[in-house]
Amino acid sequence: MHYFFRSILLICLLVGAVHVTKAQTTTVELSNNKVVVGGQTCFLHLVKEKQTLFSISRAYGVDLAVILQVNRKTEATVKIGEVLRIPVVDAETVLSPVLVEKEDNNFFYHIVKKGDTLFSLYKKYEVEMALIKAANPEMGESLRLGTIVKVPKIVKKPQVSTVPKHDKNYYYYVIKQGDTESSISRNFSMNLRKFKKLNPKLKSTALKIGDWVRIPRYLVPPEYFVEKKVVKDSVVKKYEQLESVVSEVVPIPVSQKKIRIALFLPLYLNANDSINRSVSYRDTFEIVTERNQRILYSKSHDFIRFYQGVLLAVDSLQKEGLSIDLHVFDTEKSVERVQGILAGLQYTDLDFMIGPVYQNTFSIVADFAQRRRIPIISPLSPKNSELTTNPFVIQMNTSIQSICGAISDYVCFDLDTKNLVVVHPDRYEHLNEFQLVTDIERNMFVKGKYWENGAMTYKKISFDEYGLVGIERMLSDTCENVIIVPSTKQPYVENIISNLNVLSQRYDIRLMGFPVWQRYNSLDAELFYNLNLSVITPYNIDYKEDKVDLFVSDFREKFKCEPNDFSFRAFDLCRYFSKAVGAYGSSFPDHLNEVKLDLLQSNFHFKRVNAFGGLENQGVHVVNYSRDFKIRHTFPKYKYTSEVK
């Protein structure tokens, strides 16, 4: 009997609980309790089950961002039993209540927080921006704080496994959910240490579902070799339906008129002021005398010219209809100065950053940019330490490794009836330029270029050991001799070039070189022409072109001085990235190679260095000093295939 009444009572309680829960999902009871905090009247609202911060803000008609600010919250989350302060608002400013949709099988409902952008949603949910915009037709170019964005749920296509076929020695076991190294080794009666030794990749990567490990075949029961085919029609069907929808969405370039740029340069403004004035004293008066003709502090000279190139680019962009908001900061070479600058940039919206130029200051700003998800451009250094670990870093100056890859691709593009000769120093394997030799040999012997061209030959010789006599024995008098010198050491390069010049009258020679060779002032330019030197370089200025002549004229007129290489580089860089932002908005890093722009000295082509790293400019020019004493400038005919190792 007691059991019967207890059962009835329990059922009644459950029915009551269900009824209460249902009521709580549909309404938010407004509080009448008020309190004055800091001169502002607020309701005190007790959070109950099923209530969200968004539903509470709509019930009271107060913007979500205001509630977050008053309650000092950084995220739009609440706990049952938490007491919130809700500001009392005028009737005119009350928001009209809306029905909050529940999460369903088709969408995530993302509440916009500070710092959210369309690009950041794309990165977080891995959903194309075009699909997010299509699901939110009322969305503008910027996301409003506190609003809800519908993000389509993507059913990912099942990936085709790349598991090797079982062979006579090993069985390739596919990792399933719940598998661990210990459980797998136990399952196959295998020593854990032996299991790890057999699968060395586990030292650097954890087990992933769908990945594979090797198991000695003799430890595997026969039933494991029976294939099991499971066809999941529903998953494939859903993917095909989604794929048909995605294929109909054509990404449309974003039209952004206002570009916000931060420029960090060591301008040394205080030092420039000091050297251009002198202070003297007469009685109790301080007399400041300015120089008639201002001079530049030596450490700032090139960076002032860079800044002037940016100013000319901004001027040209504004004439083309873009609005440029340029923030310029003098970093000097001071870490403390840069940290102070960044403290003032916490709440500044930026499309991209340029600089700083010194590694000690660049690292600090790059870390800030990564946290804020702002692309940051390294304008000058060819070896930025942040490039391989920070996906927001964009390195403009091509690394020596990429130059080596470009020379290799250029040399191996057309190998018919050529004699390739590598002239190297002794013990050069530790040099960065040694990669040029490995790249060439990979192109020829691994990729098969050598076997495709029976008429070509390949030789290597140490100049230190065999000298000029040894080199001459390597040359052919029946075909072109392409000589490659994997070095940027000035004394060594000068010695080889001087010796090769002796042979240039008797043999058909084409010398391949690095861009830094052009800056060796002690070398007579006539040697370059005699040896038919070809240089692969990321930058080249042709002063015969009208666009270059116009830039130089504008620069002289505006700044009363001559532009240098930094000025041209800054002009190209600033125009290119501003145009990219104007066309593609915050997603511009994914579209950099789609920007079509006539540049002064650059041939930009960007590649991501690895899955977690940034972008490197690997676009190059070929500059040839031909025997008719003309300098010819061309772009490579080969496709960009150089690899970052």
TrEMBL record:
It comes from the Bacteria. Residues 1-23 form the signal peptide. It is found in: Membrane. PANTHER family: LYSM DOMAIN-CONTAINING GPI-ANCHORED PROTEIN 2, MEMBRANE-BOUND LYTIC MUREIN TRANSGLYCOSYLASE D. Residues 43-86, 108-151, 171-215 form the LysM domain. Pfam families: ANF_receptor, LysM. GO terms for cellular component: membrane. This is LysM domain-containing protein. SMART domains: LysM (SM00257). Coiled coil: none annotated. It comes from Labilibaculum filiforme. CDD domains: LysM. Keywords: Membrane, Signal, Transmembrane, Transmembrane helix.
